[in-house]
Write the structure tokens for this entry.
Amino acid sequence: MAFVVTEPCVGCEYTDCVVVCPCDCFREGEQMLYIAPDACVDCDACRVECPVDAIFHEDNVPEKWIEYVERNREMAAACPPITERKEPLARTEN
Ligand code: SF4
Ligand code: SF4
């Protein structure tokens, strides 16, 4: 089981979630973050920190974003770790 980052994260200006994770689960994609599911211990700390409610437990991901469960697994394996708060992520039009 793991937590999952979903669509509202795209273009996030607050990477507040990464600093509360005790297991360094977050990975930095070009436009959003992902959680490495094998590292996540379901502590729930990141979910409450996210100001746009982009994070869900995988059992609670809204149906319209269910594809993000697998996408987090795939993208987390391909993206570098992020453990410190950063400036806004890149936006699509850039
Ligand atoms: S706080 Fe984290 S999960 Fe929430 S939108 Fe920002 S980067 Fe994504
Ligand atoms: S639930 Fe806890 S361990 Fe999992 S990604 Fe969020 S902060 Fe990290």
In short: The pocket of iron/sulfur cluster (ligand 2) is lined by residues 3, 20-23, 25, 35, 40-46 (CB under 6 Å). The chain has one domain: 3-78.
